[in-house]
Amino acid sequence: MFSNLSDKLEKALHILKGHGKITEVNVADTLKEVRRALLDADVNFKIAKDFTTSVKEKAMGQNVLTSLQPGQLMVKLVKDELTELMGGEEVGINLSGNPSVILMSGLQGSGKTTFSGKLANFLKTKKGKKPLLVACDIYRPAAINQLHVVGDQIGVEVYSEPENKNAVDIAQNAIKYAKSNGFNVVIVDTAGRLAIDEQMMNEIANVHKAIQPQETLFVVDAMTGQDAVNTAKAFNDRLNFDGVILTKLDGDTRGGAAITIKSVVNKPIKFIGTGEKMEAIDVFYPSRMADRILG
Ligand code: GDP
């Protein structure tokens, strides 16, 4: 994960670690390299620039030049700044409803259906919940089947109405079904498209309005870099979602999406997907991610 970014940051900070005496020039050079590493990781220019400006101010404020271990201090400042940029503290999901309704949104192929299964499995096995999965894709029968396969795999019931072409109806019926059958979490998997289109946005906005979920999660493929950030922005403008799920972090992604999505949409990343298996789900901890990035 992020191996290229990690290597470049390691090299950038190495400059400082290697010097006995550190000058303002060394700090400036290091930060220039840090900025370049961020840009190469597909972090947008303004965020990368603000990042290094902020680290520089803090470094000067903490007298980095006269500190005992200037290299260590710089690494810490970069780590803290990365953690902050990715959201600071981890943020859990709201399970206060009865049932708690979770609406999944995102483009086709982002990993929505897979993640719906992973989340159901996580809530069942780690939180002792009784989840119901709901297939709300009214366009692709294959998507409904896929959710049934996932449900069978993890032993979670899947609600679907293959003949019904009204997504709002299906979602509402599913919630009624959950209430009368003792399910305490309802995870609604919706239809995605290959690109943002008005019909998809209207449909999910209607479902959102009708079922008023406790959590609306936006699922996005981390491999898509700045496109991921732009798509997040479009969905957030429409749905004002509660959190982001970043999938496919097991591939060698460049890191830009993970690092910048929080600051662009001001919504936390809540979970990450790290593989195709149902167990490949992790809570997103910004500081642990910063540790991994810095190696
Ligand atoms: P949807 O169209 O948004 O529902 O996406 P799917 O859940 O069908 O996922 C699309 C493809 O991505 C499938 O082949 C999944 O197995 C794969 N996928 C989903 N999440 C991950 C992940 O975290 N890592 C990897 N490597 N593949 C994933």
UniProtKB/TrEMBL annotation:
GO terms under biological process: SRP-dependent cotranslational protein targeting to membrane
Nucleotide-binding recorded as keyword: yes
Keyword Nucleotide-binding: yes
Catalytic activity: GTP + H2O = GDP + phosphate + H(+)
Major site of localization recorded for this protein: cytoplasm
Record's subcellular location: Cytoplasm
SRP54-type proteins GTP-binding domain ranges (all copies): 268-281
GO molecular function: 7S RNA binding; GTP binding; GTPase activity
GO terms for cellular component: signal recognition particle
Keywords recorded for this protein, A-Z: Cytoplasm, GTP-binding, Hydrolase, Nucleotide-binding, Ribonucleoprotein, RNA-binding, Signal recognition particle
Broad enzyme group: hydrolase
Residue numbers binding GTP: 106-113, 189-193, 247-250
EC numbers: 3.6.5.4
Notes on the domains: Composed of three domains: the N-terminal N domain, which is responsible for interactions with the ribosome, the central G domain, which binds GTP, and the C-terminal M domain, which binds the RNA and the signal sequence of the RNC.
Family: Belongs to the GTP-binding SRP family. SRP54 subfamily.
Subunit: Part of the signal recognition particle protein translocation system, which is composed of SRP and FtsY.
Known function: Involved in targeting and insertion of nascent membrane proteins into the cytoplasmic membrane. Binds to the hydrophobic signal sequence of the ribosome-nascent chain (RNC) as it emerges from the ribosomes. The SRP-RNC complex is then targeted to the cytoplasmic membrane where it interacts with the SRP receptor FtsY.
Protein name: Signal recognition particle protein
First-to-last residue of the parent protein present: 1 to 295 of 446
